Structures are given as structure tokens and as C-alpha cells.
Amino acid sequence: MYPISPQLAAFVTHTESFSSDDSSLVGLRRNYDRMCQAFTPPKPEGLQVWDYSLGGVSVRSYLPTTPTPPEGWPCLLYMHGGGWVVGGLDSHDFICFELADALQVLVIAIDYRLAPEHPFPAAYEDCRAVWQAIQAGEGPHAIHLQRLAVIGDSAGGNLAAALCLGLRDDGQPLPLAQVLIYPGLGGASDLPSRRDCMDAPLLSTADTDCYLALYLLGAGNPSAYAMPLLAENFSGLPKALIAVAQFDPLRDDGMLYAERLQAAGVSAVLYPGKGLVHGCLRARGQVPEVDQLYNYLLHYLRSEGLTQV
């Protein structure tokens, strides 16, 4: 039903091998962490990694060993995926390593609080707290605030978009760009991708509904900071790269967001992710179409000045 390449199919099979009959929250997180560990490469030579706190939130920085640039580091603030329920600092080492090493920039990953123990707005508030701390000059690194972008995958893409909305609404300094990779943005349940990709590999429509319900637990009427597509106004937001996956129930969320940004006069690039599935970033080096996504991602970030190389 989903015509994915043999290489991507092999990746899907390997990923699914870490699932189990234990559907408890503890089991879900344990299996996800095991899967992530299996796909995490060794730390690149010449990269310093350490954990600390910013704005009262745990973060991890990835820093090249090259000298600090005179104006401070270009910086990517990374928000990990995992449906707001699973994942953490270890789960997305693989892409933070890659971005810091390939671009020779500072990457800071946020260990935001997880649902359902900490439903919305906890994760959103944690991301805002880290942003404010960076703006205030806190932390061990000199950061070039005009070369600071937000980036996230899946639920992390939601948080990156929500952060941009909240900062704009409050008249705060904005990121240079927002980079959203197969984001879940609170699109309507009757979007075509929800139906067409109902049982897509690695993320089903039922999965997306379950994760969102856990995130919104007790939230009442959800706001645009929980579901960015609910925003009434998309003007004045940072330029964007939105990468979607063809075989993903969340595909139309990203497509709609790109359309609404463009209609509001915001520069937005949509990467259509032909042949890709949700969660495929970990297939770097194994699947040519995923390597194409990475290459485009790095090209975009370089074109926006988020690089030293």
C-alpha cells in the first residue's frame, strides 16, 4: 500500500523490532529509548557535549572545538520528537551530532517535561524558558542572537512553531528561522493524510490521536500554542523550512502550515519528502531519500547563515 524503497522498508523493520507487548508508559519509553540507542552513531571527533540547565530546564549542548566566533556562535535550538510523551536528551543525539558537526555550529537540545505527567503547557513553557535564558545571555556559551534558529521534528516541530507564535504575540525577539521536520501542528482529523496514511509505517492516525490526547490532558479548549494551525494570524513569523513525509498522517499539517505562512507573506519552503515515512531521520546513511532530506536541510541552514563552514 505504501511504495517505499527496499532500504527504507529495512529501516522500518529494524525500528519496529524494538516494539513489545508492554503498552504501559514505562514500557513505551523503555522501548523507544532502546530503539534510539540502536540508531545513535558514535560522537564525532572534535565535538564537545555536556549537560547543564538553562532557565531551570535541562539542556544538552553540542559544541565544535573550533574557536568561538568573535560575534558568538550561530546556534540551533533543538526540540526533540516523541509525541510529547517519549524521548529526551539521548534520543536525538543522532541529529544534534550531525547538525553541530556538519555546520560547525552550537546546537542546544531541550529536555522539556513530558506528558501525560506534565501536559500542555509544560513543554511549551520549558522551551520558552530556555529561549528567554539564551536572550538574557545565560549559560556557558557566547551566542550570536541574530543567528539563532529553532528546529524540531514531529512533536518538536510543534513546539518550535508554537514558540515562534508565542514570541511574536508577546513582541519578543524572534528566531532567524524555524525548521520543522514532519511536524504535528494540530490539523483537523478529516485531513486527507489522516485517511490516506491511516496505518502508515511507524506512525498511524490512531497513534497521532493518542499522543495529542495525552498532551492536551485537562487543557480544555486547546490554544494555538498547543495546536499552531489554530492560529488566526500567521503574519510576522520567522521564515520557515517545513519538511513533510509522503506516507505520514501528519503530512497535511506541515503542508497547511507552509500554505498559511506563504499566504501571510512569510517566506516558507516546503520539502515534500517523496517516499519518506514519519520518523525516518534515523535512517541517515542507510536510505538515499533520507540522505537527500538531510542534504536539503543542511543546504537550507547554510543558506540562512546558520553555519561556519
UniProtKB/TrEMBL annotation:
<dbReference type="InterPro" id="IPR029058">
    <property type="entry name" value="AB_hydrolase_fold"/>
</dbReference>
<dbReference type="InterPro" id="IPR013094">
    <property type="entry name" value="AB_hydrolase_3"/>
</dbReference>
<dbReference type="GO" id="GO:0016787">
    <property type="term" value="F:hydrolase activity"/>
</dbReference>
<dbReference type="InterPro" id="IPR050300">
    <property type="entry name" value="GDXG_lipolytic_enzyme"/>
</dbReference>
<protein>
    <submittedName>
        <fullName>Lipase</fullName>
    </submittedName>
</protein>
<dbReference type="Pfam" id="PF07859">
    <property type="entry name" value="Abhydrolase_3"/>
</dbReference>
<feature type="domain" description="Alpha/beta hydrolase fold-3">
    <location>
        <begin position="76"/>
        <end position="281"/>
    </location>
</feature>
<keyword id="KW-0378">Hydrolase</keyword>
